[in-house]
Amino acid sequence: MVNDRVMSEHRAVRKHAAQHDLFNRLHSIAADEEFVRRVGSAWYNNRFEVRCGNWYCDPTSSSNAYAYFKSTDGHMFHWDFNLRRSNLSLASYAEAKGGLILVDSTRRGKRMPDGLSKTVPIWCAVINIAISLRHDVPQNWDTNIYLSPQIVPPTERSQIETRLQAWAESLERSSLPLPRLTKPLRPFFIHPSTSLPPFIPETPSYIPIICLSASRWVNEGRDEIPSVTNIGQRKVGFEYVPGGGDDDELWARGLEPLLFHQHKKYLLSVERDDLPALVDRLVKSADLAAGINTSLVNCDLSSSELTGVPSPNSLMALDIGPPSMKASWSLSPSEVLRIVPVEKYPKNIPFLLAVHPSERVLAVPSAKTGGKSYAIALRELVDYVKTVSIEQSKPIVLSLGKAADFQKAIAVGDNTQAIDPAAIKITSPSSLADARKIILPLALVILCALPKISEYSTRSSPIEGSLSKDLVTNKLHGLVALWPDGNPPRVALKRVNEFLMGEARRDD
């Protein structure tokens, strides 16, 4: 018995090591990528754009359209059409491109990830039904849900079908910009054991959404599992890892998809024992070349056009990069508010600081670690916007600030107290998406606390409706539809709701 236990533990250690081995991972990814490329080119003659998980397509050639289909929205008994992950801009994009191939992978135990086998079909059907509720559509407009019978059993299909109408009605009632598609969306399913591609005519009566699972199903035994690769003139074995691109923080040694694809031929040609050192050299070289750029100064969100939220005639606009769908602003800014995230900030100093009469800087603490300070910053934000935009009818723009903006605010003489720069620590968003996640909660607070900002008017108008969690959610969905990658973190939304519900109680 002891020997059996020792052998079992030894096998578990070897399995874990093989699953996280760099050589196994990269050659598994290469095998999956080859299958994806074969489907797109040989089966569909490159008719459709490919939207991939980062590792399975060259980022320089695959579509960068935003898509986020969460597998948990397709898990048994947890099926959902989540309005915060509506992917509505992707539907319009798919129609413009004549269809899309969505690529994902899964680990052992499943033919396809739930995100492809159920979340995407639910998305297609709900949008089709919602469009039929809002617009006049042809009599043959397809509102059925299409699920693979080999993957989704009839009982599960039936339970999903009973929920579609309610999800569609919720979408149709929301403030989200429902696309005016001319054809319904329809999913198709492909995986490595698919022998013949689904037939899609040259001019289909639907928008094809091809759900492509890149990884082989190891446990089933029917898939041909890659196990040999060429290193120079020799054939070398490797252990195939399904979903090889997952959990790259555990095995990739800092290697990222773009760097992998730039040096793929070289990386796949070296011996197993030489691969870690090569990856380390490539990562170090790339870091030096890029300067590991995480500075606010270089995190430039600005676009040539400002976006009025929630509409073009709002008194507020955001300057946080182009939205995912067409939007504009019909006004010109009179006030500019630059948002600067801070990790450390003096307690006796206002978060809102003047740069000059028409420009302010707002220091925003972390919603996670500085909850009380975050609420104070929100209070100063609302009071300021109420004064300039509601009482004085001045259009305002929210944009990402830079360290230089904050330093300028410290230097001017009209701030009430001297500020020690050493007492302040400015944080740097690591990506444009992270910067948007900081600014969108602030815009949400303004839209909910000051509803009259939504439409420019020189005369006061009554506030429509009362502040509620449903109203906050509806406003949030509208913002996230414009910048899907700016979907705020849960803790920031919790702080926003706490602040707004406190405002509602104060007004009662």
From TrEMBL:
GO terms for molecular function: tRNA adenosine(64)-2'-O-ribosylphosphate transferase activity. GO terms for biological process: charged-tRNA amino acid modification. It holds the Pfam family Init_tRNA_PT. Residues 19-284 form the Rit1 N-terminal domain. The keyword Transferase applies. GO terms for cellular component: cytoplasm. Keywords: Transferase. Residues 362-500 form the Rit1 DUSP-like domain. This is tRNA '-O-ribosylphosphate transferase.
